[in-house]
UniProtKB/TrEMBL annotation:
A GO MF term: hydrolase activity, acting on ester bonds
Alphabetized CDD domains for the sequence: SGNH_plant_lipase_like
Pfam short name (any one): Lipase_GDSL
InterPro entries: GDSL, GDSL_Est/Lipase, SGNH_hydro_sf, SGNH_plant_lipase-like
Record organism: Oryza sativa subsp. indica (Rice)
Family statement drawn from the similarity comment of this UniProt entry: Belongs to the 'GDSL' lipolytic enzyme family.
Protein name (Swiss-Prot/TrEMBL): GDSL esterase/lipase
Classification lineage: Eukaryota, Viridiplantae, Streptophyta, Embryophyta, Tracheophyta
Amino acid sequence: MGFWRRCTPSTSACAGVCVVALLLVALACCPTRARGAAPAVYVLGDSQADVGNNNYLPATLPMYKANYPHNGVDYPGGKPTGSLGVASPPPYLSISNTSVYLRGVNFSSGGSGVSNLTNMGQCISFDEQIDQHYSTVHATLVEQLGPRQASTHLAESLFSVAIGGNDIINRVLLSQLVGTQDQFISSLANSLKRQLQRMYDLGTRRLLFVGAAPLGCCPMLREQSPTKECHAEANYLSARYNNAVTMLLRDMSAMHPGMSYAFFDTYTALLQYIRQPEAYGYTEVKAACCGLGDNNAMFQCTPASSYCANRTSYMFWDIVHPTEITAKRLTKLRLMIPAVGLPDKHQPAHCELGIKYIYSTFAVYRSTDA
């Protein structure tokens, strides 16, 4: 039986931004098989989870990639160390041997949104991630394993989705977008319903959905606010979107008894840092560490950008993404996420592997070689 859970940290310190990391927290906490591990991890979404797919898109502008300085500045040679020993699912476009599909794939693309119009031509749309790439993996697994075993494999695997933030950002920034706020949220919810149903039809049964952050508080949207405080409309739309997603997930779980899910409340988690920065060691939660213009918030981090020396004191690395320290702190937490579809007696108290993966995954994403 599916369930409704809003996953928040067991302590009050959690940024909740790196989606792949959160998925591995769920993996570590959700023993879907007797030996306590899901057979594979499949990740879909935007730049929160993109580990390099956009680097294989020749027409994509650099602003939708992260494979250049100063990203990875604190890693030897600008590359992730891999010292934590936790591997990320590889980007789909990098895979040449389809046997890898059995161990998991990352389909995510920076800039993508629920709507196909969001950053169109610069990323792999969410529909394309599902209907072309995940669909191809599904067909290949059926060919390799047979229909029954492929179905079992996918049903026991963990899937992550982090999508919607770019739709909200574009709505706020692009004045030519028309329609009321209600119409906007309704349109996203209707599209997402179709997309998640398609994932279900392709075998997804265990899902972690990472909710929208308080996007109005990221440096880019603060800069659009007359007071330079959190952008009220962006935060309102983020909260409305999260409510729509949770209602959709509950409805899907009721409709499909075999589907289990968890929703990570990124909005609440991030606000804990923003509202009480000193309690978590931050001296700067408004400006970006790396960027251009006022508060480094006018354009993203590029080789021409300045970047802060005291990176451990900043919450945001660039106009929208977190610093390494935000991810690193998560490795020291005891983050509890309920086991997906399992009774409480099977839920471990802490999630060591998942916490380590938070730091490891962020290293991959911000690497200059990602």
